[in-house]
From TrEMBL:
It is found in: Cytoplasm. The lineage of its organism: Bacteria, Bacillati, Bacillota, Bacilli, Bacillales. Pathway: Amino-acid biosynthesis; L-histidine biosynthesis; L-histidine from 5-phospho-alpha-D-ribose 1-diphosphate: step 5/9. This is Imidazole glycerol phosphate synthase subunit HisF. Keywords: Amino-acid biosynthesis, Cytoplasm, Histidine biosynthesis, Lyase. InterPro entries: Aldolase_TIM, His_biosynth, HisF, IGPS_HisA/HisF, RibuloseP-bd_barrel.
Amino acid sequence: MIVKRIIPCLDVKEGKVVKGTNFVSLRELGEPVEMASAYSKTGADEIIFLDISATNEGRQTMVDIVRETAENVFVPFTVGGGVRTIDDVTRLLRAGADKVGMNSAAVADPELISESSARFGAQCIVVAIDAKKYEDGWHVMTHGGSKDTGIDAIEWARTAEQKGAGEILLTSVDTDGVKDGFDIELTKAIVDAIRIPVIASGGCGNPDHFAEVFEKTDVSAGLAASIFHEDTYSVQEVKERCKQQGVNIRET
């Protein structure tokens, strides 16, 4: 049985960790390096750092913050936001990231996935999919969830896998920040369509939501931000609740 992972996510804008609802109404929550270091020491299985305004602002991810964060965490560290070229991938891996996430640029040029995977290995390449429900299914959203591409999210997940992605970071735009639970229907649809690991993101409000997504889908990891950043629950509390409900959770 695959061991499930619990992952805090740091959405960073202008050098500060922020969080919103449905990708808007952002509020400032803290310093990324300090928060990442604390999570690393208190049981997080991985940490994801997303520079959420880099793409819309047409700039590179903040490499200095990435480098300092990498020096202070001792678990796998994924970085995304503003990745447009193979040089961006190279720069982030050299700065200390273990994996690099890509979204808008991968949609615009799927060969970026292939090129990055061929050069660095699929295990380093995470394709982030922000999906929103429409009448005809889930559409891929880009540019921080603000642009509807019209692309079917399930088909795009299959394409990303074929192009060499090693993992999918799936975020439901509809449930993001709402705290009513992960989008089980969306998550199951994506997980069942591909073979590579999927991280569920968007909507977690308590430890039972982690247990639910692990029980109802074959997702390999669950990600949350608000419940950890606001000290509502700790990573350890989430792990204990999952274990109580029979989930095979990673020990720390």
